[in-house]
C-alpha cells in the first residue's frame, strides 16, 4: 500500500537530462500518498557527485515549505560535462516522513563557449561542390586505449545531421539540430556513446543535408536563408579507468565523400540511390584513399546552446489499412489517418529498380489522390534498389503530411501492393502526453482525436501552421490561439521554452514581432499574431509555474506592448498598420480572407489583453513601478475602447460573433454592457441556426465566451452542430485532423481554393481547451499557478452529453474529473493530486442530497468545507479520490428548451419538481394544473411534437400568471 512517497523527479522538466547548459537547474517532484488531504510541509534535497551520496555537494537540510516544483539548485557552481545525482524526501501534514526518493541525476553539457575545442568543417570546395545536392559524408578514424569507462559525443551541424559510430546510428532523434534563429542560437546535442566504442580502432561519421539552414524555405521558396555551406562541429570525450581523458574533434584531418542520398529537402522529399551506398563507410576498416579532404569553416561557437526542446523522434508506427487503384489508374496506399512522418518499406527487386512515393492528404470527389494543396512542395521520395533481398528504406531528412501515398515502380504492384511491406512512421517532438478527454458523443471523441493528431503533426520542433505544403512555418498567431489546448494534451514546457527564446532573439529592436518564428519571411506587427510574445509565456507560467521563463521573457513582453503603444494617433487605441484581422472568418467579403470584424477593434482588444498580461507579470516579478504604469495604461485602453467601439447603451459597433467573443473574453466591456454583449452573442448564434462565422481570432474563444457569459447550453449546441460550418462537419466528411478551412471539402466534394487548403491545421482545434475546462470542468485558480489550487466545475447541457471524463497530469500529479448523468442521478468522480487543494462545484446540487462514497455529505470525512449557493454545492477538498452522487432533480440531462425539460420531468411523474421550478413555495397545485399535466401525459413526449410543446408553454405561462 502506498504510504508517503516522493516520485517522478525531474530536472528542468526532464527525467535524467543529459547535456544541459543550465547553471542553476531546477528540481521538481510529485508526491504519492494513501491518505486524503495530503500536503507537503517540508522537504530536503541532497545533490552529490556520486550515486552513493558519500560526497554531498548541496544539502538543503529541512526546509519548511510546500514548494515541490522548480526548486533551484544553490550548491557549488555547476561544472561542464559533469553528472550530478540528487534525491528528495518530504514531511507531510500527518507528521509522516517519506523515505528518500529514488536517485535521479542531471548531467551538464559544455556550458561555456571556451569548452568548444573542435573546428567547424566541410568538404574541400575544390574537391566537392559545396552547393551540390547529395548529402555529405564526413568521417574520422581514431584509436582508443583499453579501459574505457565513459564517453560523450557533443555536436551539431548546419543544416541537418545524423551521426554514426562504428557503423551504428548514434541516438534515435531526427532533424537535428532542430530549427532555431541560427545566427543567434544554434542547438547542439549530447550523446552517451560509451557502449558504442571499443578498444583499438574506431570510426566516427556524420551525414549532412541542407535542412532548414540552406534548403528551400517558406511559400517564397527562399534558399540559403542562413548560409550556403553545410558544415559540422563535433567533439568526443573518452574517459579511462586511470582517470585520463582523450578528445577527438572535427578538424581538417577528417575525410569527406558523398553517398546514396542524392537529394534531400524538407518540402520536396528525397532521392536515395542504394547502388551508391558505401559499405562500411563508418567502420574503421574502410580504406579512405578515394575520400576527399575537409577544410575549416569560419562559423562561430558563441551562439551554441545545449538542446532545449524535446527531441524529434518516430513516436508511433502505424500500418496501412488499404490499397486500391484510383479512377486515374494510380496505385494508392491508405494509412487510415492523416499523419506526419514518413513511409518505411521493404522490397525485393532487381538492381536499379526505381520506386517512387508521392504523398497527399485526401482524395478528390472522383476518388483520385489530391495534390493541389501542396503548392510547390513535391512531398516525393524516390528509391533506387541495389538488388539484394530484403532491402529496406525510409527517408532521412524530409517529412510529409499525408494519409494517402501514390506508389509507382514497386515490383508486382499491378497485382496489388503487399501492405505488410509498408508502415507509416509518425514523427514529431517527443513530448510527454499529459491529457485525455472523452465523452458520450462519438463525434466529439473523434474531434478530440483530430485535435491531438493535428498537434502531433505540427509540433515538429516548432509549432508549424501545416505539415504538407511549402510553408510549415512557426506562425505566431496559430501558436498563441492553440497553446491552451496544446498544454492540456502534451507537456509543452521545453517545446515552447525553446520557441520563445527564438521569438525573443528575432524580435526587432523596436519591439515588433515577426509573423513567423524563426523569422524567415517578411511581415511584422499584426495584432493576435505578435501577441504570442505575451500570451505564450504567460500561459506557460500559469500551466507550469515557470517564473524563470516569465522573467526571461519579460523585456520581450514589455517591448511588444510598448511597440503597440507607439502606433497610431492615440497611444490607447491600435488603429494603424497591417493586421490579418479575423483570418478566414466566414463573414468576410467575397474574395477576401479577412473577416468582417474591424481590424482596429481586434487590435485594441489584444492590446488590452497583452497590457493586462504585462501588468500581471510585473506583479509576479515584484516590479511594482511597472504594475502601476501598466495598470493605468490598461484602464486607459479600456476607456478608449468603450468610447470608440461601444455605444452609450452598451451595444458593440461591430455586430459580428468575433467582436462579441473577444470583448467578453478579454474583459474590455463591463457591467450592463458586458451582460448585453453576452446576450447578443447568444442571439447571433441562435439567429444563425447555431452555426459559427468566426475565423482564427474568434474561434478559439467562442465557446469559452458563451459559457462565461451564461450561455453554456448554446455553446454545447454549437459544438454538436453537424452541418456546415461546424467542428463536426469535417468529421462527417471523414477528417482525421483539423482543417484550415471550415469547408476545406465542400458539400459537393469539391475543394476550397488550392491556394491555401491544409487538411492538418490545428488552429480550430483550440476548442479542446473548452472541452477540458468547461465540459469536464478542469481548471485552476490563476493566483496559484500550475494547478496548486484546482478548480473543478463541470457544466452539463444537452441530451447528447450524458458522460464526460478528462484527466490531466500536472506538475503536481494527475487530476481526474468524470461525470455521468442518468434520469435519476448525477455522479461525479474526482482525483486530486497530493500537495494541492481543489474548489469543487457540484452543479444544481443541494447539501441534503449529496453523497460522497456512500456517505451523506454532512457525514463525510476529509471534506474541508462546503456550502450551498444558487448554482450548486461548493466544496473545498484535498488530495485523494472522491465519488459524489446526488439526485438529478433538475433534469440536467435534457435538451436546450424549457418545454422539453418540463416534458421530461412530467414523464418521470416529477410534477412537484415542475411546481418547485416555476412556482416555488406553493403547497398544492391548482386543479387546472393537474388537468393539464394529466392531458400532457397522454401526448407524445417528444420535443419535436408541436402540440406537446405548445401545451407545455401554455402550462408554464399559467404558472407564471397565477398569484400564489
TrEMBL record:
Sequence ranges assigned to domain Bacterial alpha-L-rhamnosidase N-terminal in this UniProt record: 147-316
Keywords: Glycosidase, Hydrolase
Xref: Gene3D superfamilies: 1.50.10.10, Galactose-binding domain-like, Immunoglobulins, Maltose phosphorylase, domain 3
Transmembrane segments: none
Xref: InterPro entries: 6-hairpin_glycosidase_sf (IPR008928), 6hp_glycosidase-like_sf (IPR012341), Alpha_rhamnosid (IPR016007), Bac_rhamnosid6H (IPR035396), Bac_rhamnosid_C (IPR035398), Bac_rhamnosid_N (IPR013737), Ig-like_fold (IPR013783), Rhamnosid_concanavalin (IPR008902)
Domain Alpha-L-rhamnosidase concanavalin-like: from-to ranges: 326-428
Alpha-L-rhamnosidase six-hairpin glycosidase domain mapped to chain residues: 434-775
Pfam family, one: Ig_Rha78A_N
Reaction equation(s) it catalyzes: Hydrolysis of terminal non-reducing alpha-L-rhamnose residues in alpha-L-rhamnosides
Domain Alpha-L-rhamnosidase C-terminal: 782-848
Keyword Hydrolase tagged: yes
GO molecular function: alpha-L-rhamnosidase activity
Range of residues in the leader sequence: none
EC number: 3.2.1.40
EC top class, as a word: hydrolase
Protein name as it appears in the record: alpha-L-rhamnosidase
Organism this protein belongs to: Metabacillus niabensis
Amino acid at each position: 500500500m502506498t504510504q508517503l512517497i516522493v516520485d517522478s523527479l525531474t530536472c528542468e522538466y526532464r527525467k535524467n537530462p543529459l547535456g544541459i547548459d543550465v547553471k542553476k537547474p531546477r528540481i521538481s517532484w510529485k508526491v504519492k500518498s494513501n491518505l486524503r488531504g495530503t500536503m507537503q510541509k517540508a522537504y530536503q534535497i541532497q545533490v552529490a557527485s556520486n550515486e552513493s551520496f558519500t560526497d554531498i555537494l548541496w544539502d538543503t537540510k529541512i526546509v519548511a515549505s510546500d514548494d515541490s516544483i522548480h526548486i533551484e539548485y544553490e550548491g557549488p557552481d555547476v561544472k561542464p560535462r559533469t553528472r550530478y545525482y540528487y534525491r528528495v524526501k518530504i514531511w507531510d501534514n500527518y507528521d509522516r516522513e517519506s523515505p528518500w526518493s529514488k536517485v535521479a541525476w542531471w548531467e551538464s553539457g559544455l556550458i561555456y563557449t571556451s569548452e568548444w575545442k573542435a573546428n567547424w568543417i566541410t568538404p574541400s570546395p575544390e574537391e566537392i561542390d559545396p552547393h551540390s545536392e547529395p548529402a555529405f559524408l564526413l568521417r574520422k578514424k581514431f584509436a582508443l586505449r583499453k579501459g574505457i569507462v565513459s564517453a560523450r559525443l557533443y555536436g551539431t551541424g548546419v543544416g541537418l545531421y545524423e551521426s554514426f559510430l562504428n557503423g551504428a546510428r548514434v541516438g534515435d532523434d531526427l532533424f537535428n539540430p532542430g530549427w532555431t534563429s541560427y545566427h543567434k542560437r544554434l542547438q547542439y546535442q549530447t550523446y552517451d556513446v560509451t557502449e558504442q566504442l571499443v578498444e583499438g580502432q574506431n570510426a566516427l561519421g556524420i551525414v549532412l543535408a541542407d535542412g532548414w539552414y540552406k534548403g528551400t524555405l517558406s511559400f517564397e521558396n527562399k534558399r540559403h536563408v542562413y548560409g550556403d555551406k553545410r558544415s559540422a562541429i563535433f567533439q568526443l570525450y573518452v574517459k579511462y579507468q586511470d582517470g585520463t581523458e582523450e578528445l577527438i574533434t572535427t578538424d581538417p584531418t577528417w575525410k569527406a565523400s558523398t553517398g546514396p542520398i542524392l537529394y534531400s529537402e524538407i518540402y520536396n522529399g528525397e532521392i536515395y540511390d542504394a547502388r551508391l551506398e558505401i559499405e562500411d563507410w563508418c567502420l574503421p576498416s574502410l580504406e579512405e584513399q578515394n575520400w576527399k579532404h575537409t577544410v575549416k569553416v569560419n562559423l562561430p561557437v558563441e551562439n551554441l546552446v545545449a538542446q532545449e526542446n524535446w527531441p524529434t523522434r518516430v513516436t508511433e508506427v502505424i500500418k496501412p489499412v488499404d490499397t486500391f487503384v484510383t479512377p486515374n489508374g494510380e496505385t494508392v496506399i491508405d494509412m487510415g489517418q492523416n499523419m506526419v512522418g514518413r513511409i518505411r518499406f521493404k522490397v525485393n527487386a532487381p538492381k536499379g529498380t526505381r520506386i517512387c512515393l508521392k504523398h497527399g492528404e485526401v482524395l478528390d470527389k472522383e476518388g483520385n489522390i489530391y495534390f493541389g494543396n501542396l503548392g510547390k512542395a513535391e512531398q516525393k521520395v524516390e528509391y533506387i534498389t541495389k538488388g539484394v533481398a530484403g532491402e529496406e528504406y525510409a527517408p532521412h531528412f524530409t517529412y510529409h503530411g499525408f494519409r494517402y501515398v501514390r506508389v509507382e515502380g514497386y515490383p508486382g504492384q499491378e497485382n496489388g501492393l503487399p501492405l505488410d511491406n509498408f508502415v507509416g512512421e509518425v514523427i514529431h517532438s517527443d513530448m510527454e502526453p499529459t491529457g485525455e478527454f472523452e465523452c458520450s458523443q462519438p463525434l466529439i471523441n473523434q474531434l478530440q482525436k483530430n485535435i491531438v493528431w493535428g498537434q502531433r503533426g505540427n509540433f515538429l520542433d516548432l509549432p508549424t501552421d501545416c505539415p504538407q505544403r511549402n510553408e510549415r512555418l512557426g506562425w505566431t498567431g496559430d501558436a498563441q490561439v492553440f497553446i491552451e489546448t496544446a498544454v492540456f494534451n502534451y507537456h509543452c514546457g521545453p517545446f515552447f521554452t525553446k520557441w520563445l527564446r527564438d521569438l525573443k532573439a528575432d524580435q526587432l529592436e523596436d519591439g515588433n514581432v515577426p509573423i513567423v518564428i524563426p523569422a524567415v519571411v517578411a511581415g511584422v506587427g499584426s495584432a493576435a499574431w505578435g501577441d504570442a510574445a505575451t500570451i505564450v509565456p504567460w500561459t506557460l507560467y500559469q500551466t507550469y509555474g515557470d517564473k524563470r521563463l516569465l522573467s526571461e521573457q519579460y523585456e520581450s513582453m514589455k517591448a511588444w506592448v510598448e511597440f503597440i503603444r507607439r502606433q497610431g494617433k492615440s497611444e490607447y487605441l491600435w488603429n494603424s498598420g497591417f493586421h490579418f484581422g479575423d483570418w478566414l472568418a466566414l463573414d468576410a467579403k467575397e474574395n477576401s480572407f479577412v473577416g468582417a470584424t474591424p481590424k482596429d477593434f481586434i487590435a485594441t482588444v489584444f492590446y488590452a489583453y497583452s497590457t493586462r498580461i504585462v501588468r500581471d507579470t510585473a506583479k509576479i516579478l515584484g516590479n511594482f513601478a511597472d504594475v502601476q504604469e501598466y495598470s493605468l495604461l490598461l484602464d486607459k485602453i479600456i476607456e478608449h475602447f468603450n468610447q470608440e467601439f461601444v455605444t452609450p447603451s452598451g451595444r458593440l459597433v461591430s455586430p459580428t460573433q468575433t467582436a462579441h467573443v473577444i470583448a467578453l473574453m478579454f474583459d474590455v466591456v463591463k457591467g450592463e454592457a458586458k451582460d448585453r454583449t453576452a446576450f447578443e452573442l447568444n442571439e447571433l448564434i441562435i439567429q444563425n441556426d447555431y452555426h459559427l462565422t468566426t475565423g482564427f481570432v474568434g474561434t478559439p474563444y467562442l465557446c469559452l465566451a458563451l459559457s462565461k457569459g451564461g450561455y453554456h447550453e448554446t455553446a454545447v449546441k454549437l459544438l454538436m452542430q453537424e452541418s456546415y460550418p461546424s467542428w463536426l462537419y469535417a468529421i462527417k466528411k471523414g477528417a482525421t485532423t483539423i482543417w484550415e478551412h471550415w469547408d476545406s471539402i465542400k458539400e459537393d466534394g469539391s475543394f476550397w481554393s488550392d491556394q491555401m487548403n491544409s487538411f492538418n491545421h490545428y488552429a480550430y482545434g483550440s476548442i479542446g481547451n473548452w472541452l477540458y475546462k468547461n465540459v469536464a470542468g478542469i481548471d485552476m485558480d490563476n493566483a496559484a499557478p500550475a494547478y496548486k489550487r484546482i478548480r473543478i466545475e463541470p457544466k452539463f447541457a444537452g441530451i447528447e452529453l450524458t458522460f464526460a471524463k478528462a484527466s490531466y497530469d500536472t506538475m503536481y500529479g494527475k487530476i481526474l474529473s468524470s461525470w455521468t448523468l442518468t434520469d435519476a442521478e448525477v455522479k461525479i468522480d474526482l482525483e486530486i493530486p497530493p500537495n494541492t487543494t481543489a474548489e469543487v462545484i457540484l452543479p444544481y446540487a443541494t447539501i441534503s442530497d449529496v453523497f460522497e462514497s456512500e456517505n451523506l455529505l454532512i457525514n463525510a470525512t476529509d471534506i474541508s468545507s462546503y456550502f450551498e449557493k444558487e448554482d450548486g454545492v461548493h466544496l473545498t477538498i484535498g488530495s485523494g479520490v472522491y465519488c459524489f452522487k446526488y439526485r438529478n432533480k433538475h433534469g440536467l440531462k435534457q435538451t436546450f428548451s424549457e418545454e422539453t425539460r418540463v416534458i421530461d420531468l412530467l414523464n418521470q411523474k416529477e410534477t412537484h419538481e415542475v411546481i418547485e421550478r416555476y412556482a416555488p413555495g406553493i403547497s398544492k397545485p391548482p386543479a387546472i394544473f393537474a388537468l393539464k399535466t394529466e392531458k400532457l401525459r397522454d401526448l407524445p413526449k417528444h420535443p419535436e411534437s408541436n402540440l406537446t410543446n405548445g401545451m407545455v408553454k401554455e402550462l408554464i405561462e399559467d404558472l407564471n400568471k397565477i398569484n400564489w
